[in-house]
Amino acid sequence: MESIEICAGAGGQAIGLEQAGFGHTALIEIDYSACNTLRVNRPSWNVIEGDVKSFNAAKYKGIDLLAGGVPCPPFSVAGKQLGHEDERNLFPEVIRLTSECLPKAIMIENVKGLLDPKFEWYRNYITSEIQKLGYVCHWQLLNACDFNVPQLRPRTIMVALKEEYNRYFKWPKPNVKCAPTVGEALLEEMSSNGWQGAEEWSRKANKIAPTIVGGSKKHGGADLGPTRSKIAWEKLGVDGSGLNEDAPGRSFVGNPKLTVRMAAILQGFPRDWSFSGKKTNAYRQVGNAFPPPVAKAVGLQIKAAIELCELHNKEDGEIYENEAFRIAR
Q: Which candidate in 72, 101, 145, 309 is catalytic?
């Protein structure tokens, strides 16, 4: 199956969809470093660097999936929550692109705040506009830690399917097994330079991580978020005041800082995925990403719904043809 993805970022959603069985016909991303990240890791992907508002999807008509993680600040509790009045709101572009390419399914990710009561009317508006194009729209809150990601990261997911596919769609069920702790997930990395205290640190870092915050281009640098977040990290034995270039040395004493690679592991990225750009920019790519395991889980359900529908249509067609042949005889 094939997809086009807007606001692709560093590839979190794209990786998950790839693991779910989707190829990527086009990935649209405006950030130069994020585009380089995609190109370095997947040279075969068609990465289109530019503003999604300038992208026309008409030539991809009938594509299996339109996906994306549109900007979160319009709906984030950490911002002003201007919603549809925020110039960064790209849901109008989702509606436009849907009308242009009429995909079999749509999958859009955003922050938990989008489900707040104050945005109910806007969710209803989005739903209504997409339904006019022939889709059934679903909204669901999924937490990354329910899908083996060692992080508390609730995200709003919108899935819309054409009516014939909708009857076969079900949201993924949370994993029965608990997600690994920060200590379990990062022990290998923390030990990579021979740190003698790594094992002890790992035992104390015995919970999942708070939400990783990548920061915006207007505010902050490569740290782990506001004071509340830093306190939560400190309880896990992590210095949240910044990031290091490398893991602790052999004789390091104190709370270590994360590296970009460590933060990426806590987001569910493959360990061999590299990030382009300087530390602050690379960390922003990580912090703004959609965890690949969650994208994979939803992607698998969308893929199954499309396949089941088309299989049943094929079987119905064969039954019809066989019956027509019998009558003709």
A: 72
Q: Distance between CA atoms of 265 and 216, rounded to whole angstroms?
A: 21
Element (H, E) at 308: helix 292-328
Task: Residue count of the chain, please give it.
Answer: 329
- Using only C-alpha atoms, the chain has a radius of gyration, in whole angstroms, of 22
- The pairs formed by 118-123 with CB atoms below 8 angstroms and a separation of 24 or more are 118/81, 118/83, 119/75, 119/81, 119/83, 122/83, 122/84, 122/91
Query: Chain-wide mean pLDDT for the chain?
Result: 90
The secondary element (H helix, E strand) that includes residue 130 is helix 120-132
Active site includes 7?
no
Cα distance between residue 243 and residue 96, in whole Å = 39
At residue 125, the 3 state secondary structure works out as helix
Residues 6+ apart with CB under 8 A from 259: 189, 243, 244, 245, 246, 247
The encoded tokens of residue 312 equal 């049943």
pLDDT tens-place string over residues 19-42: 999 999 999 999 999 999 999 999
Q: Are 82 and 74 in contact (CB under 8 A)?
A: yes
- Quote the DSSP letter at residue 81: -
**What is the token pair recorded at 31?**
């950030």
Cα 48 → chain centroid: 18
State pLDDT tens for residues 42-97: 999 999 999 999 999 999 999 999 999 986 665 555 555 544 555 667 889 999 99
Q: Residue 265, exposed/middle/buried by CB under 10 A (0-12, 13-18, 19+)?
A: buried
Euclidean distance between CA atoms 273 and 213, whole angstroms: 19
Give residue 211's Cα distance to chain centre: 14
Taking CA atoms, 247 is separated from 135, 201, 208, 261, 329, in Å, by 48, 13, 19, 10, 77
